[in-house]
Structures are given as C-alpha cells and as structure tokens.
Amino acid sequence: MYAFSYTSPATLDDAVQAVQAGGQPLAGGQTLLGSLKLRLAAPEQLVDLRALTELTGIRPQGDTLVVGAMTRHAEVAESAEIAHAIPALARLAAGIGDKQVRAMGTLGGSLANNDPAADYPAAVLGLGATVRTHTREIAADNYFQGLFATALEPGELITAVHFPIPRQAAYVKFVQPASLFALIGVFVARFDNGVRVAVTGAGNGVLRHTAMEQALAHDFRPDAIADIGTDAAEMSADIHASSAYRAHLVGVMARRAVAQALA
Questions:
Q1: CB of 96 closer than 8 Å to CB of 80
Q2: Rounded to an integer, what distance in angstroms lies between the CA atom of residue 19 and that of residue 160?
Q3: Alpha carbon 218 to chain centroid distance?
Q4: Whole-angstrom Cα distance, residue 77 to residue 75?
Q5: In whole angstroms, what is the distance from residue 128 CA to residue 121 CA?
Q6: Going by C-beta distance under 8 Å and a sequence separation of 6 or more, which residues neighbour residue 239?
Q7: What is the DSSP annotation of 105-142?
Q8: Are 47 and 5 in contact (CB under 8 A)?
Q9: Banded pLDDT at 1 (limits 50, 70, 90)
C-alpha cells in the first residue's frame, strides 16, 4: 500500500467538508479498497463514513420507503419493513455478492460507484426512486449517466434513497458466477400509473426497456413481452457473453421477473 491520510468524521457536515476539500469518501469499500490494492485509485485522503449513523436506517414515509445511504446490503435483505413493502428489493439485496460483501457494502456506496452490472441501480431505476444528497434530490431517470458516471457533483454525498412502493415488483438476474454480478438483471415494477422495466449488466449502465414497459402496462403477463426483442447493438460483449446472448437474456429475465411479480 502507499501513504494516505485517513479521517472518520462524526457528523455529516464534517464529512462534507472533508470530501469537498478533496477527500475520497469510503462507504462500504467493496470497490474502492480493491482499486487501492491494484493501484487503480490513489487518493491522498480517505473519508470514512461509517460513523455517520444519521445516514443509516430504514423508515416508511408516506407511500415510500426511505433507506439511508450507509445502510448495508445485509440490513436491506433482512429488513422486515422492506420485506413487507417491497419484497423484491429485499431479495435483490440478499443476492448481492457473498456474505462478506453484504456485511460491508452499502446502498449509497453502490449507487455512487454505479458499476454497469450492479444490482441496486436496477432497483432504483426500476422503482423510479429518488436519490437524496446533502444538497438536493435527484430522480432516478436523471441520476445514472453511463459507465461509472452519475449526476453527483464533486463533493456531493448521498444521504438516502426514497423508494416508491409498487403494486407488484420482482428482480431476476443471470449471475456471472465468478463475480456474482449480473450478467443480465431485470427489475420490473408495476404501479397504478404504469410499469417500469430496468436492465443492468447490458451495456454502459443501467437502462429502461420502454417497449416492454408499454406492453406490460396494457397486459401484465410474461406472454405480453414474449415477442419484444432487444437490440443487440446496444448490449456489451466480453469474455463472458456476446451482445446477442445478452440481448436474448434480457427477454428471458424480464419474463421471469413478471412471472415472479405475479406470484
């Protein structure tokens, strides 16, 4: 390792001040620490957010669930509140990585990193959630901006995510067995005013499948999207799967998600 300074602020104001002075936020560290070891990142200062209990917790607020940014994956997976209101979100969290990752990784850390194959972005976009920072609110449709890119400004910290409670929802992913990330993951959410379908693992970042949304809004059954294809040109290709195979998986995972939501 190389030399860097470390601070663990006790308040959100202190954390914001340290980050705006150039410090690198450390949430769960599941990506950052690996990047440090591989010399892919070299921050001069780490700002550990673990002491900020004000950024943790799960609570209902009207027709939404508010989940603090420093809430760990395991806490989301085991939350009775989430299991009752949005069981798809609890199941998604339970399928992130392994036990060690779920014990350390956080909601806010995952969203700030915005890995193109991460699970949480599919839930946030699929549910039409709102990302709350220390200065503003950002709608999910405006938050994700491509490969590891978000609408966050330098020095801006996520404090919580507001998840609307759907009528029905489900998340199904085809797991890449080495990393346990989604080779393709599809989150489907049905609301009184329509359906949202979010796909992760497909390209440069999470995306909505509008053709499937329109079909499912009229007929919420797996058969309603059986003939709806996905453009392979919009899919990524690597050693794990071709773009054509990923395009095929989108349809398969989406139909399974609808079936699971109905069940």
A1: no
A2: 17
A3: 27
A4: 5
A5: 10
A6: none
A7: -BHHHHHHH--TT-SHHHHHHHTT-EEEESS-EEEHHH
A8: no
A9: low
pTM, entire model: 0.95
Q: Are 93 and 76 in contact (CB under 8 A)?
A: yes
Strands 24-26 and 45-48: parallel
Is 198 in contact with 184 (CB distance < 8 Å)?
no
151 touches 127 (CB < 8 A): no
Task: Residue 65: name the closest of 145, 13, 128, 19 by CA.
Answer: 128
Q: How far apart are CA 63 and CA 43, in angstroms?
A: 40
Sheet of 168-175: strand order equals 168-175, 182-191, 194-200, 207-208
Dist CA 132 CA 13 (whole Å): 15
Residue 234 is which amino acid? E
Please report the DSSP string for 52-78 in residue order.
Answer: -GGG--EEEETTEEEEETT-BHHHHHH
What's at 224, amino acid-wise? A
Euclidean distance between the first and the last CA atom of the chain, given in angstroms as a whole number: 50
Q: Is the dihedral of CA 225, 228, 234, 239 positive or negative?
A: positive
For the stretch 155-185, pLDDT in tens is 999 999 999 999 999 999 999 988 889 999 9
